UniProtKB/TrEMBL annotation:
Pfam families listed in its UniProt record: MRP_L53
Source organism (scientific name): Polytomella parva
Name of the protein in its database record: Large ribosomal subunit protein mL53
Record has Signal as a keyword: yes
Location, primary (coarse class): mitochondrion
Family: Belongs to the mitochondrion-specific ribosomal protein mL53 family.
Gene Ontology cellular-component terms listed: mitochondrial large ribosomal subunit
Signal peptide: 1-23
Length: 128
């Protein structure tokens, strides 16, 4: 299916922005489906090839609260995000990674052209 192909391509591109991935869920928790699927995708051979330095770890709980599954991401810019996955589809987790990756690319481009949006002379509201 084309949707799965696109989400896998997006995942491979996005993994380049990740330093560490940690996934935790409880065995048999039906609300942990997206966390388990995300773990499966990031630990696949193609994903590992796209960023071999990305550390991927997991913790499968035998006891614990249902609905407490999460994915913790550390990006190469040292930003860390914990995403509770019980109410999310795996595509929504991937979108959050993609959004952060886009933000990092934009910051890199602004740095390349020596543009700081926080400098007073660059603020739009001060020009009107």
């Amino acid at each position: 299916n084309i949707y799965i192909y696109i989400s896998l391509r997006v995942l491979l591109i996005m993994l380049s922005n990740l330093k560490r991935v940690f996934v935790q869920f409880k065995t048999g928790d039906p609300t942990a489906t997206s966390a388990r699927e995300f773990l499966q995708r990031v630990s696949g051979a193609n994903a590992k090839k796209s960023n071999p330095s990305c550390e991927i770890n997991m913790n499968v709980l035998e006891n614990g609260l249902a609905g407490a599954a999460f994915v913790e991401l550390e990006f190469v810019d040292k930003d860390t995000r914990r995403i509770l996955t019980a109410d999310l589809k795996v595509e929504e987790i991937l979108m959050q990674i993609q959004d952060k990756g886009g933000e990092m690319i934009l910051q890199g481009l602004m740095k390349e052209v020596n543009y700081d949006p926080w400098k007073k002379e660059n603020r739009l509201k001060d020009k009107f």
